[in-house]
Design a protein that fits this description.
mainly alpha, 2 strands, 4 helices, Ferritin, two-stranded antiparallel sheet, about 140 residues, elongated
């Protein structure tokens, strides 16, 4: 599916955040040693959804402004959130790192594409992308 409108972009961002949150919640149940860290990631994901929605609904004033803000193929940002039963902890942490990189890429690409039409939404996307970059370091620190 190719995203074109601001509404489609926001909806897809929410899907990425929800899918990643479910991944981290599952990971917390599977690995109790670092459960607190993974649950905090899931909680942050839900805050990011609120942040994006506030930016979007606060600035969209007419159909033209949010009309064709993107040309994004969602398949390019597919997340692998299922945790394989046989995967060891290092493999799962690598999977989490790939999820973060994919979401960061989506936010960066979406911000770049929409910055000429909207100000607040691309700014929120870039802020979240920067915040997510710290997760990569945090995940690396959890490796055994």
């Amino acid at each position: 599916m190719i995203l074109h409108t601001a509404s489609e972009g926001i909806t897809f961002a929410k899907k990425l955040e929800n899918d990643a949150a479910e991944f981290y919640e599952s990971l917390a149940q599977r690995n109790t040693r670092d459960a607190e860290a993974f649950l905090s990631f899931a909680k942050e994901n839900k805050k990011y959804i609120d942040q994006i929605e506030r930016a979007y609904y606060g600035v969209i004033t007419d159909a033209i402004e949010g009309g064709f803000a993107f040309n994004i193929e969602t398949d390019d940002y597919a997340l692998r959130v299922d945790i394989q039963e046989e995967a060891d902890y290092a493999d799962i942490l690598e999977q989490a790192t790939e999820i973060e990189k994919t979401i960061i890429k989506f936010y960066s690409d979406a911000a770049e594409q929409s910055k000429s039409l909207m100000a607040d939404v691309p700014r929120a996307f870039m802020m979240i992308a920067r915040k997510r970059e710290s997760r990569i370091t945090r995940l690396a620190a959890l490796k055994p």
